[in-house]
Amino acid sequence: MLIEGRNPILESLVAKKDISEILVKKGIVPDEKVERIIGMAKKRGIRVKYVDKKFLDRKSNTGIHQGMIAYRANESKANLKDLIANANHDLFIIYVREAQNEYNIGSIMRTAEAVGADAVILPPKIKLSTLMVRSAMGASEHINIINESLFNAIKLCSKNAVKTVGIEVTGDKYYFEADLTGSVMMIIGGEDRSLSDTITSKLDEVVKIPLKGKVNSLNMSIAASVVMYEKLKQSL
C-alpha cells in the first residue's frame, strides 16, 4: 500500500513497518522531518528515489503527498483473540462498524492512539487504506488494526470480561454516567446508519451524548472522540 505525507511516512519508519521504497520530489526543501526520513531510510537500506512532482501527483491516492510517497507492505497480523489472550492490562478497543468516509476512520484511529487504545477493529470488508493512514497522520502505524466481524468481536469480548459499549443517539444513559473503567470495547455506528436492535441487545451498555442544538447527531469521529476521552478520564 502507499503511505503519503511526511508525518505518516516518518511514523511508519519509527514503527519499523516493512517499507520497500520512498519516492521523494526532486528539489524538496530538506527540513528536519525530511532529513530524518531520508536518514532513517538509508540506515535501514530502504531505497530512496527522487522523482518529478508530476510523477508523485499521478501516484497519489490522496492528493496530499507533501512531496513524499512510500511503498509499505500490507499487514494484517493482529487478531482479537490473541490480543485478548496476551493482554496483561485492561484493554480498550474501538470497533468501527461502518463508515463511508475513510477520513473519518483515520480520524478515529488518530484519537484512539492518542488515548492509548489497544486496537481499532474494522469489519472484514473494510481494509486499512492510504486515505485512512493519511487522515490518521501516522497514528495508525502505532496501533493494532484488526479485521473482525462485529458479532464475533462481541462474542469474544463477552467471554473474556471485556465490557461492550455502544454509542447511539437513543442510548440508555449519557456517556459520562457509564462505568468505562476496566476492559472495554466501544462500538461506533455508521455515519447515517444507527446500531440495530439486534446489535444493541447483545451489548452491556448503550450510551448517548447530550445534544442541545437543532442537529440531532454528531460526525462519527467526533462522537467517538468524546466517549474515548471519557474512558481515558475514568482510567486516570
TrEMBL record:
It holds the Pfam family SpoU_methylase. Keywords: Methyltransferase, Transferase. One of its GO terms (molecular function) is RNA binding. Gene3D superfamilies: 3.30.1330.30, 3.40.1280.10. Residues 2-78 form the RNA 2-O ribose methyltransferase substrate binding domain. InterPro entries: Alpha/beta_knot_MTases (IPR029028), Ribosomal_eL30-like_sf (IPR029064), rRNA_MeTrfase_TrmH (IPR004441), SpoU_MeTrfase (IPR001537), SpoU_subst-bd (IPR013123), tRNA_m1G_MTases_N (IPR029026). Coiled coil: none annotated. GO terms for biological process: methylation; RNA processing. This is RNA methyltransferase. It comes from Candidatus Dojkabacteria bacterium.
